[in-house]
Amino acid sequence: SAVISQKPSRDICQRGTSLTIQCQVDSQVTMMFWYRQQPGQSLTLIATANQGSEATYESGFVIDKFPISRPNLTFSTLTVSNMSPEDSSIYLCSVDQTEAFFGQGTRLTVV
Amino acid sequence: DAKTTQPPSMDCAEGRAANLPCNHSTISGNEYVYWYRQIHSQGPQYIIHGLKNNETNEMASLIITEDRKSSTLILPHATLRDTAVYYCIVRVSQSGGSNYKLTFGKGTLLTVNP
Predict the structure, then answer these.
(1) Do the chains contact at A45 and B101, CB–CB below 8 Å?
(2) Is B19 buried (19+), middle (13-18) or exposed (0-12) by CB count in 10 A?
(3) Which residue, B90, B102, B50, is CA-closest to A100?
(4) Cβ-based contacts of A57 with chain B (< 8 Å)
C-alpha cells in the first residue's frame, strides 16, 4: 500500500487568488492522479500526472486553470488558479498500484 | 459516464450482513470490478476487486455473476463504522490507455443503524 500526504488539509481563499496543493507519496510511483469532489457530488478526475511528461487533462479541465507539476516520482502539485466560488471543492491526490490509494484531500473554500 | 449502476441508498442493521448490488452490463472481458468506499470527509478507501471469480479479503466478499453483468459486495457483519458511500467501478487492472482510469459514479450510501 501507499501512504499519501496532502497539504494543506483545508484552506479558505479569496476569489481571484491561486492555491497550490502538495501531494507526497511514501514510495516511487509512475502515475499520480488529481480528482475534484464538488459538494455533495462524486469524484471527477482532473488530470493524470506522469513524471517527466506533461499532465493529461480530462475533458472540461485545462492546464491554465489547473497547472500540475510532477518533479519526481514521489511528489506532485496541483494549482487552482484565479479561483472563484465555483472552485470550492475537495481536491484529492491518488496513486495507483493495481488498486488506487487516496490522500485525505484538501477542502478548499473560495469566498 | 460511469459504466455501473447502483442504488442510491441502503440501510442495514448493525451486526447483519450488508449486500450492496452493482450492475455493469457493458463490462468488457478485460475489465475488473473494483469497490471503494468513502467515509464522510475522508479520501476513498480500496475494498476489493475481482475479474470473474468470487473474492474475499479481511474487509468484504465480492460475488460476480457468471455472465459478469452484475456483482454484489458483501460486508458480513456491518458495524456503525461501515456507514459510507460505496462505489462500484469497472476498469482494466494494468496501466496504459484511457480505460485504466477510475470513473466514479454516484455510489450507494450505506447507513448502518444500531
Answers:
(1) yes
(2) middle
(3) B102
(4) none
Spatial neighbors of B84 by CB under 8 A, at least 6 apart, are: B37, B38, B39, B40, B109, B110
For the segment B21-38, what is each residue's pLDDT rounded down to a tens digit? 999 999 988 889 999 999
**CB-CB under 8 Å, A45 with B95:** no
Tens-digit pLDDT profile for residues B38-74: 998 799 999 999 999 899 999 999 999 999 999 999 9
Contacts with B95 from chain A: Cβ below 8 Å: 30-31, 96
Cβ within 8 Å, pair A42-B104: yes
Range with top average pLDDT, A14-23, A47-56, A90-99? A14-23
Q: What is the greatest pairwise CA distance in chain B?
A: 44
Between B85 and A99, name the one with better pLDDT. B85
Q: Which residue in chain B is spatially nearest to A6 when comparing CA positions?
A: B43
CA A91 to CA A84: how far, in whole Å?
15
